[in-house]
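ugh ok fine here u go
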Amino acid sequence: MTLDSGLLFALIREMRPRIIGARIGDILGAGPLGFVLVLHSKDAPQGSLVASLEPKTSAIYLKENPLRAKGGNPFVSLLKQHLLKARIKDAVQAGFNRIVKLSLVKADELGVTKDYALVLEFLGNRTNAFLLRGEDLKILGQMRPEKTTGRTLGVGKFYATPPDSSPYDLLTVTQEQFLDLLRKKEEDTASILKRNIRGLSPQWAEEILVRAGTSEPAGLFTAIQGLRRRLIGAPEPMLYLEGERPVALSPFPLIQFRNLEAKPFRTLSEACCAMEPRVEGGREGGKGGGNLLEKLKKKLATLEDPSLLRQQAMALERNLRKVPEHALEFAAEGKTILLDPKKTPEENLQALYKRYRKAKQGRETLKAKIANLEAGVIPTSNLKHQKSKIPPPPGWEPIFLPNGEKIAPRRFTSPNGFLALVGRTNTENDLLTLKFAGPRDIFLHTRGNPGSHTILRVGSRKEKPPKEDILFAARIAAYFSKARQAKHVSVSYTECQWVHKPKGAKPGLVVITQEKTVFVEPSLPQG
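structure:
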């Protein structure tokens, strides 16, 4: 079942009064090709705007209660970075195509506003989503690589709508234009309708033929006018079922499906919500859809225990000098750790940490998928397809200092490509700030609250980090502090050349000068 132009027109018309002016309070993942915007208006929950970009089960609709389930895909991380707390200014359908454009505006901590556009293209196998800069439609990110040959799209390029060869659309085509089409074309009537009138899917073209009951041009155009009146008139949503399988969703009753079970709904969004459990797994009754939840649970049970791997890795690290070369196993702190005899002790340690990160990421991702299916969020793809969409975890490989010591700080990349490093312990804070960071790197720390040292790497760059990168790192510094639960946190920052450690001070304690202060809400860029 596909999302055609007429159904999309009715959905947008239904949702616009609810979403325009609403603020985005949260952004959740929903499978590898979906996301959920949790909306608020005047601090009151408005529900959730759900978007599925699965080619076979694409959808956009409102869900009354805010969704709690979370999934993961890189595009959601990008949306969180730019659109959290943004306000929706408008929602339109582009030229009666299967394209939706959400216009948004966001004010930063300094009151400076930025415009964005979120474009959703429901184009079958070419279904995609794009986040654009509002003033010039420059692409900030997209959900899937562009597959068309008619345009060149990518991050940093300027968005252009797909080429369209249809000269007319369903809402505006005149009788004279329609009759002219029939005179010039040497095809069957259904093909003429689909190729030349934008918004006429095969289903709606068939409905025109059934309603007309004739191939005469006048009768066909009368049927088009009747379809047009129903579309712009009062909605009467209808879901058609063949047994338990959804066949079609329409904003009004369709004559061609009069022999199928018809289930009426108050709104189209309610009908979309009703279909959620029926299209689990990203397939409509296909193989593996019904038992996907069971498969995911079995897969979760077979994953290695990340906590056990982490304990083994930490024990091996503390006793690394005692590990003999070419050992098959090593006993430390009551744990037997299996080793690769072809690797050095250091290589075995790195491999064990890599297994821990893989198991941890895999477990978190599978739990998110299971939560999505149990909550009936939106269709998710099969596991094989989804696995390729899972973003890799941050690189936590150790950084070796010139004196032989090593650190493994948390790593994040700012909007303009600056690396933000966050210490994990007091000792690592000292090494990160005083031994690793350069004099022009930016040191950040919460004022009046214990927390991790955060370093925004400048390195050999001549330019200083822009304000948005400072705020990016400040939000992270606030998150990794005792003030994490606060709404507004004061964070000081200065160049590392103005950071020094008093003689005899405890690990992690430093004194800074020449500092500036920003106020931020604690958060992580990837949730």
